């Protein structure tokens, strides 16, 4: 359910945002597609926008050097 809401939120951001979720299962692809049918209210969008950014590193130092960051 969290992924569905996250994708719906990104889709509501506008056509300049193209979420690309990764998955290995057809059932997950179907769940991701369902996000296009979710309509979030203005209040829900505002609450999602107000969340703090994700914390923590996604890559270790060696990986960051590999992607030149």
Write structural notes for this entry.
There is one protein chain. By secondary structure, the chain is mainly α. The protein has one domain (2-66). Helices cover 49% and strands 0% of the residues. It has 4 helices and no strands. The protein has helices spanning 2-12, 26-34, 42-49, 61-66. It is extended, with a radius of gyration of 15 Å. The protein starts with a helix and ends with a helix.
Number of helices: 4
Order of helices and strands: HHHH
Report the strand count.
0
Helix content: 40-55%
Q: Describe the biggest sheet?
A: none
Mean pLDDT level: 88
In terms of structural class, how would the helical and strand content be classed? Answer: mainly alpha
Q: Radius of gyration in whole Å, from Cα? A: 15 Å
General shape: extended
Share of residues in strands = under 5%
Distance between the termini: 33 Å
Count of structural domains: 1
Unreliable residue stretches:
none
Descriptive key words:
69 residues, extended, mainly alpha, single chain, 49% helix
């Amino acid at each position: 359910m969290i992924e569905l809401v996250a994708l719906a939120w990104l889709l509501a951001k506008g056509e300049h945002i193209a979420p690309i979720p990764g998955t290995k299962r057809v059932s997950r692809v179907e769940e991701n597609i369902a996000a296009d049918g979710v309509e979030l209210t203005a209040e829900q969008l505002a609450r999602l926008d107000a969340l703090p950014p994700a914390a923590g590193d996604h890559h270790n130092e060696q990986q960051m050097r590999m992607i030149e960051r």
